[in-house]
Amino acid sequence: MDFARPDNLIYTNLGMGLPLDQELRAAGRTDLLAAAAIIQCYHERGSDELVHRAFKDFGFEQLPFHRFVANAAFYYVMMLSFVLFELFKQRVCAPVIPVTAYASSLRRRLIDMAAKIVRHGGRVILKVPRAVYEHLNFERLWQNTAAAG
């Protein structure tokens, strides 16, 4: 229903010959002076919020302690864990699970699976069902884990 969409007006002082334009040129960002680039920046204005959503999905929205220092320590550990999780997604899971997947999706697809750990001949073996092995391309994940370590 194109007729029901509201019209948008983007009002900017970029490209008007002001000192800001000279600073953009000096920084090598003359592309931001074109109307198409300004519109593209406008369309991407919500993408930074996706990081906050991913962080909330990974951890908690409410901190668990009553004291500020304990909450601060918990928050920093959670932030470090989130960065390590994102690195794990990029380095290990990228061929199987999209990098844009949230933590709950990755948990459901990769971690919440049936498996059995057995010892046989002095070795520890992880047994996974054939369907899971093929669906997740488990051999590739295992190689990526060894290469990332």
By secondary-structure content and strand pairing, the structural class works out as mainly alpha
| Rg, Cα atoms, Å | 23 Å
Instruction: Measure the end-to-end span.
Output: 51 Å
Largest sheet: 2 strands, antiparallel
Order of helices and strands: HHHHHEEHH
Strand order of the largest sheet: 1-2
Number of helices: 7
Keywords:
two-stranded antiparallel ribbon, 7 helices, 149 residues, mainly alpha
Write the layout of secondary structure elements.
Elements: H1 19-26, H2 35-43, H3 47-58, H4 68-93, H5 103-111, E1 116-120, E2 123-127, H6 130-135, H7 138-148
Antiparallel strand pairs: 1-2
Kindly summarize this structure in a few lines:
With 149 residues, this protein is mainly alpha-helical. The protein has helices at 19-26, 35-43, 47-58, 68-93, 103-111, 130-135, 138-148, and strands at residues 116-120, 123-127. Among the domains are: 1-45, no CATH class; 112-148, no CATH class.
